[in-house]
Amino acid sequence: MKTTAGARDRRLRIALLVDRFGNRFGGAEAYGVELMRVLGKRHDVAVVARDFDSDLPFEYLPVRFPGWLPSWMRVLYFAWRADRLTRGRFDIVHSHMNGWAGEIQVMHVTPVRYNRVTRVKPLHRVTAWLSPRLATYLLLEKLRVRRTPRRRVVAVSGLIMDQLHRSYGEQLQVDIIAPGVKLPPPDRDGRRAATRARLGWDAHTIGCLLVARNPLRKGLPALLDALAQLPPHYTLLVVGADASTRERVRAAGPVAGRVTLIDPTPDVAQYFDAADIYAHPTLNDSYGMAPLEAMSHGLPVVVSSPVYCGFAQYLTDGQDAFILQDPRNGAQLAQALERLGSDPQLRASLKTRGLEIAREQSWETVASRYEALYEKVLRERN
Fold first, then answer.
1. Tens digits of per-residue pLDDT, 121-179?
2. What's the pTM?
3. CA-based angle 342:343:348, to the nearest 5?
4. Cβ(17)–Cβ(93) under 8 Å?
5. Nearest-CA neighbor of 108 among 44, 161, 170, 49?
């Protein structure tokens, strides 16, 4: 294989390994979709997944297994099948899954070893290795990060990189490539007005938004507490509501009347356009793509500290966003929301800075960084 041209200048065959491919499945899955949307303009892309829900014209290589199989067996089978489907067929195998297949290994979540071995007492470590389920996860993760000349481990945030180093040692080479964002079209005033009217919001309403696949883990309880402490013209819109979300809101008492719940949908842009503030008091996000997407739509953001949200480590409190030291503290959250809601100048300042951050994180920039990694892998292979 010739190496005179860079990865961006020649057409590569790329296989993406991902559990589910589609924007409606959540943040990590959307990362793969948007990245491959850009790379697919310059390269040939195939997707290895158990579910595919996209209009992108990629080859789909499905991985099927019986639903009754335990989760750890499904993960093991996926790793084996993905290796069989891709070996020798592609220039680059770009994996978002635990397993041994793939030159590019993208880590989206806290490492299993960090949670089950690094941070626990010695007896719990032994217990982890005695469990077939945990032992499988630990082994597949170890195979994923093992050092070879053709492999690159990528963390989506500094938080994940730190956890990897604490779990596998500082000698593990890790690149950080944060998620990107797709900038919306500039003229959206008409859509904003139409969506607000449909939600029953008037000109005085301060619409607070949370977009999450699991709202309870992304801070819904704290938001309900905060809403109870705010004036009546503050409302909450939750996009991605499931059964447990609806049950929690029903139990919130009178404040439930100020909450609007929307089922999971791939078309969340209309709700970003309609809102006034984006609130993300998450309890566990390795990065947090939703706050970045909110910034791209011109929303001021309230977000958990870097202890809880990897994206926050790139932000300055009060300048780029409001950062919560304790995302479970409803009073602290209410104070931040009220400051933003009552100060249009402050909202405008955070909006300007947020748009600057979003422009710096376009998916084109992210794709170029991956192409540079691809080129290193291809050079070392030759």
1. 887 788 878 889 999 999 999 999 998 878 999 999 888 999 999 999 999 999 999 88
2. 0.76
3. 135
4. yes
5. 161
Would you state the structure tokens that stand for residue 57, as one six-digit string?
A: 């014209």
Closest CA to 105 of 178, 174, 13, 180: 174
- The domains found in the chain, sorted by start residue, are 13-180+362-381 (3.40.50.2000), 189-360 (3.40.50.2000)
